[in-house]
């Protein structure tokens, strides 16, 4: 499954990049996130509870960041295990483009693969849930960064 979108954030690119690397900001924005631990600048551990259709699962997973193109671009890859509900792995490429001194365009392309009970729910339900979760994350993220920029 693949997802792609862009969002306009009313903050300078450096501030957006810093927020994308701040575990506290990410924890606030990731739907169902119970815990987010930063082990290093490139390694995070997350515990997330998600409901997809009739299946509710608690995922534990690891995320690796590749910041070689920072602050203009970076990528992340991760995998999570939801026990009997299944497992997921995927990644995303994110680019940040300044659009004036106080506006940033964030674009992302993400891919995900799932297995287990979740994979049996049907691709339409999985795709629509993934789109909703991504939209919820980026709306929350934009709101948090816009508030910080205004303050």
Automatic annotation (TrEMBL):
Highest rank taxon of the organism: Bacteria
Family matches, as Pfam families: COXG (PF06240)
Alphabetized Gene3D superfamilies for the sequence: 3.30.530.20
InterPro entries for this protein: CO_DH_gsu (IPR010419), START-like_dom_sf (IPR023393)
Name used for this protein in its record: Carbon monoxide dehydrogenase subunit G (CoxG)
Organism: Ruegeria denitrificans
């Amino acid at each position: 499954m693949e997802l792609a979108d862009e969002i306009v954030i009313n903050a300078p690119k450096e501030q957006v990049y810093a927020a994308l690397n701040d575990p506290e900001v990410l924890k606030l924005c990731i739907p169902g996130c119970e815990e987010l631990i930063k082990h290093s600048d490139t390694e995070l551990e997350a515990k997330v509870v998600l409901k997809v259709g009739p299946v509710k699962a608690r995922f534990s997973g690891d995320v690796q960041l590749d910041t070689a193109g920072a602050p203009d671009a970076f990528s992340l890859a991760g995998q999570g295990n939801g026990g009997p509900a299944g497992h997921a792995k995927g990644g995303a490429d994110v680019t940040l483009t300044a659009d004036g001194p106080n506006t940033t365009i964030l674009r992302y392309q993400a891919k995900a693969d799932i297995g287990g009970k979740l994979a049996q729910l049907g691709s339409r339900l999985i795709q629509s849930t993934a789109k909703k979760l991504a939209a919820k994350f980026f709306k929350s993220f934009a709101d948090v960064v816009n508030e910080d920029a205004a303050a």
